[in-house]
UniProtKB/TrEMBL annotation:
One of its GO terms (cellular component) is cytoplasm. Belongs to the TfdA dioxygenase family. Pfam families: TauD (PF02668). Residues 27-288 form the TauD/TfdA-like domain. The lineage of its organism: Bacteria, Bacillati, Actinomycetota, Actinomycetes, Mycobacteriales. This is Alpha-ketoglutarate-dependent sulfate ester dioxygenase. It comes from Nocardia aurantia.
Amino acid sequence: MTLAQIEHRADREASAERGYREAGITVEKLGQHIGARIGGVQLGGDVPAEQVEAIRLALAINKVVVFTEQHHLDDESQYAFAELLGTPTTPHPTVTSRGTQLLTIDGAANSWHTDVTFVDRIPKASILRAVTLPEYGGATTWASTVAAYEQLPKSLRALTEELWATHSNLYDYVGQADPSDAINQGKTDHYREFTSTEYQTLHPVVRVHPETGERALLLGHFAKDFRGLTTAEFHTLYQLLQNRIIKLENTFRWNWRLGDVAIWDNRATQHYGIADFGDRKRELHRITLAGDVPVDVNGAHSRVIQGDASHYSAILPSPRLEVFAA
């Protein structure tokens, strides 16, 4: 990062701090590249507009924001708050929500990913609320894909900016698990539902964030190949880039407590639900907000290979935030 970029970032954060104070909220930074805790707001459908805008700004800057002591929230008020931040998608392109407007997360996706990248209209953000927690374990970790891109050497940036990857929902959640095991049988059933309709989309490996103008690596476990490279070349280069993303200094870990809510920018992060709680119950409720079709550094858009996701989400471009304007 150049001195000019550092100075611009400092000016941006100073401007944001003024906005937070005017909105009556506090934003406590929890990591250099990712993660912040927001205080002074009670989430719900009646959050004042100035606080909603301050939350949106804090999310753009910090990539993940968490709220504590939100015990008053239920599914209805969580959804009402989500509508203030954007337009909710249906819960998932293939997984049924059993009649609710939220997706119940009752396991842990113990692999790094960005949500729903196998469709063209990648969600812009998710809002996750803790409902039932195990006595131990079950934390979630996020990684900044913006920081990872910015830390690449110039030559590697140039390479990644020209790469395109195929993303597919044919991701093997089950692996080599024993199908006779009850837990693994549940995973097998989930996988069948998850892949009941096949989706494939060609995305740029480097996308430009619509609200911030920042560049981010678009990878995760739904990426299956790099266009024009062999399978061996894909695996080698993919792992190199993934290792950059999940470098500990680029991550933020949250140990859930009841009353906690986390919001993450799905266009600038990957996340990993840690499966270290055995057969104990862990339930979180997620609402996902509609986003746009990724654009590469040359202005080219992602392209659908297979599957129509129009039933899942609208395509809603986001304008550039004022503090990120050139």
